[in-house]
Design goal:
Shape: rod-shaped
Strand content: 5-15%
Number of domains: 2
Amino acid sequence: MGSSGGGKQSAAMTALAEEQFEYYKEQQEIQQGKVDDQRDLYEAFEFTNPFADTQNPFANIQTEFENIYGGAQNMYAGAQNAYAGLTNQYAGMENLYEGMENRFEDMTVDMRAADFQSQQMQQQQANIMQGLRGAAGTSGVAGLAQAMAGQGALQTQQIAAGISQQERQNQMLAAQEGARIDQLQRGAGMQLQQLEAGGAQQLQAQQAAGAMQTQQMQMAGASEQQQLILGGAAQAQALGVSQINQQAQGQWMSDMAIMQGEAGVQAAEWGRESTIMGMEYGLLAGANQSLSGAMGNQMSAMGMQAQMANSQAQANTQMMGTGIMAIKLYFACIPKGTKIDKVDGSVVIEDIKPGDIVIGYNGDPVKVLQKHEYLEGSTAERFYKVKFKGENDRVHEVNVCDMHRIKGERSKDITENVISKEVYNSVEFSYDLLTEDEGYRIDSIPVNSMIEEMSQKIAELKNK
């Protein structure tokens, strides 16, 4: 290949480097615009304190409590002595033996027996005198009469003695009956006096007991009334203290809620500023690094162009290798460790060999025709972890370089069902597979094979 061929290759390589530089410059400007727009959204976002209007729920609680026992009265204050009106039931009793008469006091002597005896004796004397009058004569009769008169006097004395004895017996009976009546009257009087004195004593005891019971009931009622009043006052005081504590607790909770809200606002503001700074510097750093890499590729192309001008023979080989290297830099492919879907599961891409069966781009089992392996080493953040939203909220993750196509679209540009993109570097090896259809699948997501596109770029470079 002549110098004109080397010039064409050099121009093509330079154009490819310039295309890459312009692309990353454009991406940097686009990313800068997104960062600026996002920063405007963050700065325009207004944070509010959700606790600012917190109120004390205990502020209007009842503050006055009445003593429910304050009006309590002594229920025994008007109690009366139930025994105060009692009377002595023995006070009007009469002596049943008072006024008894001595039945033997008016006893008389029975004179009929004495009279009969006297008459009999006189008749007997008259008969004797009549019978002896003829025999004794007058003088004899006189003597006999005198004797009989003496005997009659004796008999009269005997009769008088009998009467006196009877009278004495009547007196003794009357005296005995009088003594018995007197004893009965005295005993009844003494019994009445004892009953009356006992009734008075019992009445006095009952009245005293009633007065004491009334006094005790009044004192007990007064004590109970005082306890109720004191208890009610203590209860009212306790309720007042509880109310004050609840108000203080409510105020404390309200103050704490407001302060927590203010702290949350400050933390959110700090987080927002930190996020803005992190996003700004992180995205700009990635864009600047990609742009620096493109500039390095451009300078490398220019250096290779100078080298090819010095040695035509070496230039042809170097330009071809360098062009392929530049194209390879343009397509960084699939990083090591990424799992490719197979019929019976998945396997890391570095363990796949030509002839293995994988799940193709269209979802059918296909055969691997070629496997390309590349040594990476660039520190540029060109690799993406793209997370997609699938059915039933399942998350799918695909690891590829920025220029690799997913569903026919560059990974750096794809947005359909994308949840997030994470840029990273430090990839040691990358791979790509050529299958029987458009590519293969990673975590059920269709990924294009870039081998044919790279071949086309190399063919265009050769033709130039």
